[in-house]
Predict the 3D structure of the following.
Amino acid sequence: MSNSPIQQQVDKRRTFAIISHPDAGKTTITEKVLLFGQALQKAGTVKGRGSGQHAKSDWMEMEKERGISVTTSVMQFPFNNRLVNLLDTPGHEDFSEDTYRTLTAVDSCLMVIDAAKGVEDRTRKLMEVTRLRDTPIVTFMNKLDRDIRDPMELLDEVENELNMMCAPISWPIGCGKEFKGVYHIHRDETILYQTGQGHTIQELRTVKGLDNPELDDAVGEELAAQLRDELELVLGASNEFDLEMFLQGELTPVFFGTALGNFGVDHMLDGLTEWAPAPQPRATDAREVVANEEKFTGFVFKIQANMDPKHRDRIAFMRICSGKYSKGMKMRHVRSGKDVSISDAVTFMAGDRSHAEEAFPGDIIGLHNHGTIQIGDTFTQGEVLKFTGIPNFAPEMFRRIRLRDPLKQKQLLKGLVQLSEEGAVQVFRPLNTNDLIVGAVGVLQFDVVVARLKSEYKVEAIYEPISVATARWVECEDGKKLDEFQRKVSTNLALDGGDNLTYIAPTMVNLNLAIERYPDVTFRKTREH
Ligand code: G4P
């Protein structure tokens, strides 16, 4: 088994996503990573890539206007004898549940931190999601060409706020105008920074050894002395890299550099391709599926609408978990029990959609979908099982949705339920009123839903503000206690698109009180499909 063709493909693959706060440098680092992967000849073209290649539908037009990239959902490139899949995590205004769910489809993550700012809000949230699977995290401290915070303090912040030990692999020498490079602890060499070379793969000067007098010449005596002092402190106080702890998500290797200057990105990539895990086993409701199994399995983690408006189709993004996809093969869509022949799956080579002949565990393929595929669906070669751990996430923004033409209520509900099955948005129907509440993780989702309701369901809807802070799915094993709970708080209860009971909290204080008052009821932030 261990040397089977599938095993060889599995061993090569590394599938990861980037987590960061907006403006920390995700787009820039993606460009440089692709430059190293030779997917781009010259970095600097990820944003707005593909525009002009496909005509855009209305809401893609809308995304484009807002400068949001949609065409680079999955990028595959070779690096260090590995085949790397980088899954894009929508950020800025296009932040959505897709961002969260993409993190359930990878085997590791790169966390990019703006070293002038430290750990920011969005990063904290995304890290919560990676915790669901204890995903291994590689850290890149970015923007060393600016004045940054004390590196030691940055490591402390990651350790305390994200509850993960840090093992620095490189250490910065100066920052801002005085940024001279990094000392690579594992290689015992200093790599010297050159400004103005960010768009190329650079030949960089290195100095071997920490006590080498050449180092003093290269960075100046003062910075060299500071580096030696700092390293003594750092190596004494911080953790050494430990592969096992990294793979358990307990320790993160930390690299320093500047994405804009394309410096340090290659150190990070070396670490990631060497240490990050190959496609991992995945839990299902029946058994654990291991990547090198001969039979094909996969699950859908994202559905994107109207990538090609000529066909008005949707693309279901599927992570392959085991076996091999080959063009024309038959797959069982487990939820419907139907066998389907897949002859036109797409892969996403550096942002372009191209037809895939073959794909392996860790790869993502796109299936054309006319509304039959839902988020979380499992595909197999006949075995009945369902991958778990592809949840819905409690929305954080809410609006009441109303129709301009009240006669189209049925159409509205149908559209909303369908869009919620696709994961575009979540819909809640309060038990006591006829309202429809739309909940989303990111604000752009609201606009997308109205645009799609209009174009696909021919209903014109508008939003009204509503005072809801958060939602939790509720469960209680004790039927009597659940009845009592339902009676007492019925004004706060609603059903979601899949008829699951949900607690709609007007404020966080209200939610916390309810949790305290009803200890037998479980309030969940995520719900399995
Ligand atoms: P994001 O995808 O995480 O939102 O961040 P993005 O890469 O778009 O970077 C946000 C801003 O930070 C950009 O500047 C980018 O050039 C800058 N940046 C990224 N990495 C570095 C770095 O290592 N050093 C410095 N000094 N800046 C960096 P912008 O002015 O907002 O956009 P642009 O006009 O340059 O595209």
Q: What stands out?
A: DSSP finds 14 helices and 33 strands in the chain. The pocket of guanosine-5',3'-tetraphosphate is lined by residues 20, 22-28, 91, 142-143, 145-146, 258-261 (CB under 6 Å). The mean pLDDT is 89.
